[in-house]
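Before going further, learn to read the protein records used in this course. A complete example follows; check for yourself that the lines match position by position.
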Amino acid sequence: MVDRITRDVTARGIRMRVVEAGSGPPVVLIHDFLVNHLEFENVLPPLAARYRVLAPDLPGFGESEKPSPARYAYGIESFAEALVDMIAGLELGRVSLVGHSLGGAAAITLAAEHPELVERLVLVDAMSYPFLLDFRSRLPLLPFLGGFIFKQMYGRGGFRRHFRDNVFSPGFPLPLDKIDHYYDQFNTPAARESAHAVLQASRDTRPVVARIPRITAPTLVVWGRSDRMFPASFGQRLAREIAGARFDVLDAGHSPNEECPDAFVHAVSRFLPRP
């Protein structure tokens, strides 16, 4: 079992919780929407055997501060700048980024805007090109009623259904304890308000798409073959549009790091800088 350090870092005036383990070249793991750094719990120990791994909770999620949207402009650009502050605050220098879905969009933005900070880039089922939402997922975006629905009516059952229907591939045993942990952290007024602000701010992915050709860091695109949110064709397109990028497909849904951690670690470790 690898030793872990938990610390708080101030980023853009917001307290961010960061879990750190291992030593070597720094690798930052950036989580998806509605979750926190625990989505990487099965891949953090093997990666920490070779790297200094840092897994933050983005502002509004997990154990990080959840300021009102009136005080903090939630969104992909804000998350990227918060990560820049974290990198500076911990004096990491150049880092490798591993961004999953929403975290992938933040990683794309950071790599395009601050290429001097990024050694390698791994994009995992990254939020990038415009995508369709099912009816249940569109409800929180409705004018007037959307905020109420998201803040008041999105219960534990609906939360579980989201992960069953959108995140994990058909037949994969749901990690209900972890999903319920995510729900418990989501189910406070401040966390729901923050998450709703993120949902609204990240729906338009055109700014992310515009930054893709500006990426200069060596890039690996990893995708779940059975992703029901962002099809594997998105990953193929992303790899084509980033100069020199590699593309790797794993037998998983939207979260390969959770469904097939061994294959994920193997793919990522082959690509990251050698210690």
